[in-house]
Amino acid sequence: MRLSDIKEISSDSVRLITEFGSPGMIKSLHKIKEIASIVQEITDFIEEPQMANNIELMRTVFERVQNAGDRIRAVSIQVNETNIINNSTNLAFYVKNKMDTESDQNLKELIIAFKELTRSFQSLSDELKGHHRASLE
Questions:
Q1: Are 110 and 94 in contact (CB under 8 A)?
Q2: Beta strands, E only, the chain
Q3: What is the helix (H) or strand (E) element at residue 34, kind and residue range?
Q4: By mean pLDDT, which of 56-65, 72-81, 128-137 is the weakest?
C-alpha cells in the first residue's frame, strides 16, 4: 500500500465518522432503530402460538374454499355435459304444450317421462353428494 492510499483511506474514514455524528444521520439511525423495533414486535406477535394457530386456520380455510370452488366448477361442467338442464327445460315446454292439446293417455306418458327425469336428478344429486363427502375425507 502506498502512502497516498493510506491518506485517502484515512480521509474517507474521518469523513464517514464525521457524517455518522451529524444530526441528519443520527435522526436516520433513530428511525431505523424504531422500524427494527416495530418489525421485532410484529415478528414476536406472529410467533405467538395463538397467532400461529390462527394463520394455520386461515390457510386451511383458504385451501378448502379453493377446493370447494374447484369442485363447484367440476360439478358445473358435469351438469353441462349431461345437458340435463336443457332437456328439463325442453321437457317442461313439451309437457305444457301437450297438456293443452293431447289426450289423457299422452299426458300419462308425459308424466311418466317427467318422473323419470326427476329420478335422474335425484340420482345425479346423490352422486354429487357422494363425491363431495369423498373429497372431504
A1: yes
A2: none
A3: helix 23-47
A4: 128-137
pLDDT over 80 (residue 63): yes
Query: What Rg value do the Cα atoms of the chain yield, rounded?
Result: 37
Sequence-ordered list of residues with C-beta below 8 angstroms from that of 55, at least 6 positions apart, any chain: 46
Average pLDDT of every residue of the chain: 80
pLDDT band at 88 (very low <50, low <70, confident <90, very high): confident
94, 124 Cβ separation under 8 angstroms: no
- pLDDT beyond 80 at 68: yes
Q: Grid cell 352422486 — which residue? A: 127
The CB-based long-range contact list for 126-132 (8 Å cut-off, 24+ gap) reads 128/75, 128/78, 131/71, 131/75, 132/71
Angle between helices 49-82 and 104-136 (to 10 degrees): 150
Q: Against a cut of 0.70, is the pTM above it?
A: no
Taking CB atoms within 8 Å and a gap of at least 24, the contacts of 67-72 are: 67/135, 71/131, 71/132, 71/135
